[in-house]
Design brief:
Layout lengths: L1 H27 L7 E22 L6 E21 L2 H9 L4 H9 L4 H8 E4 L2 E2 L10 H15 L3 E8 L2 E8 L5 H14 L7 E6 L8 E6 L2 H8 L7 H5 L17 E3 L6 E7 L2 E6 L3 H17 L10 E4 L2
Parallel strand pairs: 7-8
Antiparallel strand pairs: 1-2, 2-12, 3-4, 3-8, 5-6, 6-7, 9-11, 10-11
Length: about 325
Amino acid sequence: MSTDRFDYGHELAESWKRQTLINVVRLRYVDAPVFMDITSIISSRSRGGRIDAGLELLESPDPSSIGVGAEGTWSNTPTVTYQPILGDKFTKSLLRPVPPAAVFRMLESGWPVHMVLNVTVGSMNGIKNAAFAGQTADPRFGELTDILARVRAAGALDIRVEERPNGEAVVLLIRGDSSHEARADIARARDILRLDAGSSELSVVFGSVQSHGKEIAMTTRSMLEIMLVLGNGIAVPEAHVSQGRARPVAADLRPLIRIQSGPSAPVDTYAAAPYRGHWYWIEDTDLGSKALFSFLMILFSIAETGQTQDGPVVTVPTR
């Protein structure tokens, strides 16, 4: 049983990575993503054996003859049930923006500030991040992420997620006993975000326009938009772009992830998948891209909030 668990777990993890990677590639080619959930795995095992023995006495020249035979059988036939993500679950999993509370929970749990904000946030008080269509980020957005990373590392900013009747609310608390460098960073962040001077408690809401000087209005990306943005990091063959098969990317756009491509299957990769006669992969030695891709799959787990909908189910017995 333990062997089955590890084997199936490994194959599920690899399948999940390949499915996510190929859908990022499909979106770069302006192709619709297709996600298949594995709803069940039924493993049917059987084994058996038989031993035969016989003795036959004969006359000369061979006075006796002994025959021994053994036979064993073993089979493991798992049945895997797939279900496509459709309807309400598709909307909730792929089209609904990541809640701001989830963004700050990830920051609170120790995920790098640059990774979380660059991937999940679209804008803060109108300061825009890069867009998948080629729009580069406002330079002040990068400055803000640098400031928040330093302030968090200095312990000058606390995050509190509160349960309220209308949902979760995020409150940022600025500590008054921070260092001179941290206070200078906080003053600069207040200036960029148009916050009241001296404000020590800030509320974070979903939206693009702040309503007062103690509020950060944040727009977040949906999983579909995050995948589109990550698709900018694919090294698509130049011929595919010039022929209009794949979406072009601005030359000065800095990708968040590096996804390589080539005509033949690669070796020693973190994840690889074929598409349109080419292979696409993430190098196993590219720690930054691996970490970001793992973060993407964790975001998918956070986005899985809908109930499984009725739909076509494909049951594939593997023998």
